[in-house]
Amino acid sequence: FSNSSSNGSGGRCSLCPQSPEVSFCPLSPEVSPCSQSPEVPYIVSTTYRTAYHFQPPRNWINDISGLMYYKGIYHNFYQYNPHCALWCWGDIAWGHSVSTDLVNWIQLEPVIEPDNPSDIDGCWTGSATILSGGQPVILYTGVSRDNCQVQNLLFPKNPSDPYLREWTKAGNNPVIQPVVPGLNRSCFRDPTTGWIGPDGLWRIAVGAQLYSYNAALLYKSEDFLSWTRVDHPLYSHNLSNMWECPDFFAVLPGNNSGLDMSVSIPRGAKHALKMSVGYFDKYLIGVYDLKRDAFVPDTIVDDCRLWLRIDYGDFYASKSFFDSKKGRRIIWGWSQEADCRSDDVAKGWAGIHTIPRTIWLDSDGKQLLQWPVDEIESLRTNEINHQGLELNKGDMFEINGVDTFQADVEIYFELTSINAAEPFDPSWLLDPEKHCCEAGASVHGGIGPFGLVILASNNMDEHTVVHFRVYKSQQKYMILMCSDLRRSSIRPSPYTPAYGGFFELDLAKERKISLRTLIDRSAVESFGGGGRVCITSRVYPAVLADVGRAHMYAFNNGSATVRVPQLSAWTMRNAHVNVENG
Question: For residue 456, how many other CB atoms are within 10 A of its CB?
Fold first, then answer.
């Protein structure tokens, strides 16, 4: 392997990508023109379009805006520009797709478009709630001409329609206005799914930026029509960046069943408060104090760089919902393109949603775990298996027999010794991406790097590496997981960082570290340590467009031998995702 970057952008190891030039949080009504850019032949190749991830046939998508299971149908409402492949001020509507299995989707007509004074400059993110009696409703942020952000209500025209094809905006919109002292009215958005508060009334939280702090403002209602602000926020912090897309849900330690927030929560449950901030989705674990009607984190961490993340890669604006069909909580998020805006216009589409994930709380009550929903395994075919492999320093074992561009790979790495673990520096937690750059796959270590090389060209000019390193702190072992894209493409335009995150593992009891990686052409999702760290990446290798074949390897570049007791891989068939004409 080589640490050197393969293009001009690949050397950056930054938390905040410089490209694409898309603003998550536009604060001024400057229109981004949806004009055609000069043709970019290589990016127009259909090989970069995913085969089993969620995306519309064409145009721009971003935040997941509402999820629900209703009358046997899964619904995904999402931010959508029906006119072009760019985020354009004033054009954002709500796309709508339905599914029976979370894998195959049918695109329906947009449910709302900007056509009222309270949303004339955009129908932005919101959430769906199933009320008592089974009535679905939607709350969403509307943007008025003067960039005043308000919360609007939406009802289905025909609740007996399981597809919920038509919706009606409430006559009293906006139902919540930015009349909070010190509130920046252009940073007041993204209402959560509703839950039942200690007084039996409905609660929601809305992300907000105030003069001296950011908060999830708390509102209550008896009928979901008239809302009153509670005199204190659900939670607040002096972060400089606004909290977007807050999510608030209950979890039981060590129990992967989901909890329905519209009914009473059992004793012993904890709560997770998630917010999208600074290009990442971060979260806190704590309790919902019923007396104070507030979220209280288990641990107060002032430096938000140390907050845990839902995903450590290209993943933002996630939304969760309770799946009443299978009694689980499911979360998924938006993954933006990592090429430039002219490329997006040329290929005619931009943005995908990640594979839906079951999410639950680890048995120690400290960390959320995630795993792709079981339904995605219905796409598996051509299974190959290897057992009893042994990887010494410098070894690479090629994985053949599957489509390396559309694959699901599960590997268990077993450590033969933990004595070679290098000392852990706690300062690395502040910037794991930087440490992944400094400790890449070519840098020999004690235990690791070991992992998976994917989308590799014949001469290794292009390759993406997902790997682990094991470190010893004073009382525990810390595992670094990296998804290194710095050599992922020889193309000049894609953003190619090294993503990374740490997780704890009790190696004295369990010597195995698991890795699951879903490869879907330009999308790569990896789950390390049973879902303790998840990393989503976007890659655009020339080998995918030009050659149509790539290599995949299990490898070890550490001093300690690593065994592979089990390696399984499958080719993934195409899903039917919003295929035009059904």
Answer: 23
Mean pLDDT value of segment 284-304: 94
pLDDT at 41: 55
Give the residue carrying structure tokens 């997770």: 272
Report the alpha-carbon distance of residue 310 to residue 330 in Å, rounded. 12
Report d(CA 139, CA 160) in Å as an integer. Answer: 20
Chain mean position to CA 543: 26
Q: How far apart are CA 434 and CA 8, in angstroms?
A: 18
CA angle at 520 for the pair 514 and 525, rounded to the nearest 5°: 35
Q: What is the mean pLDDT of residues 236-265?
A: 93
For 380-572, CATH number?
2.60.120.560
Tell me how far apart the alpha carbons of residues 11 and 511 are, in angstroms, rounded to a whole number: 34
Give the tens place of pLDDT for each residue, 345-403. Answer: 888 999 999 999 999 999 999 999 999 999 999 999 999 999 999 999 999 999 999 99
Paired with 167 in beta bridges are: 156
Q: Which residues are catalytic?
A: 63
**Rounded CA separation 438/433 (Å):** 9
DSSP β-ladder status, 73-81 and 368-372: unpaired
Contacts of 299 by beta carbon, 8 Å cutoff, 6+ apart: none
Alpha-carbon gap, residue 205 to 177, rounded angstroms:
13
The pLDDT confidence band at residue 212, using thresholds 50, 70 and 90, is confident
Residues 216 and 225: their CA atoms lie apart, in Å, by 20
Average pLDDT over residues 44-48: 79
pLDDT at 90 over 80: yes
Closest-CA residue to 174 (of 191, 156, 158, 157): 191
Which token pair is 274?
Answer: 């998630």
* Buried-exposed string 160-175: b where 16+ CB fall within 10 A, e elsewhere: eeeebeebebbeebbb
**Cβ within 8 Å of residue 10, ≥6 positions away:** 485, 486, 487, 488, 489, 496
Can you give the length of the chain in residues? Answer: 582
CA distance 250 to 264: 10
Residues of the chain with CATH 2.115.10.20: 59-372
Looking at residue 282, its pLDDT comes to 97
Cα–Cα dist 21/246, whole Å: 24
Q: What is the pLDDT of residue 153?
A: 98
Indicate where the chain has its CATH 2.60.120.560 domain(s).
Answer: 380-572
Structure token digits, residue 113: 């478009």
Which letter, b or e, does each residue of 462-482 get, where b requires 16 or more Cβ atoms within 10 Å of its Cβ? bbbbbbbbbbbeeeebbbbbb
pLDDT of residue 38: 41
478 DSSP β-pair partners: 471, 504
Give CA separation, 422 vs 394, 419, 474, 478, in Å.
Answer: 18, 9, 11, 10
- List CB contacts of 23: < 8 A, sequence separation 6 or more: 87
Q: What is the assigned CATH class of domain 59-372?
A: mainly beta
pLDDT value of position 246: 98
Instruction: Assess contact for 140 and 152: CB atoms under 8 A.
Output: yes
Residues 303, 238: Cα–Cα separation, whole Å? 10
Tell me how far apart the alpha carbons of residues 215 and 189 are, in angstroms, rounded to a whole number. Answer: 11
In DSSP terms, 528 is beta-bridged to: 515, 533
